[in-house]
Predict the structure.
Amino acid sequence: MGKKRKKLHGSVNKIIKPIVPSEPEKAQVDIEGANDLYREIRIENTLTDEHGEEVRLKEGAHVDVGIEADTDATLKKPKGSN
């Protein structure tokens, strides 16, 4: 079984510092092409670089957001639908 994928583009709109020091910093990402009410997502601002080191996103950074699903979790799009 394969995976179905879609890549969306976005940008880091805001870095949100935690109120409680033990909580993680968040990055607010605006996803291009999403409906207005669902455009922003907030994620923990921790990524891993190609050397295995932890890194953080900067405000204004351009990012790609990936959506992935198993083939059995998808349906074929009907012909003629947009």
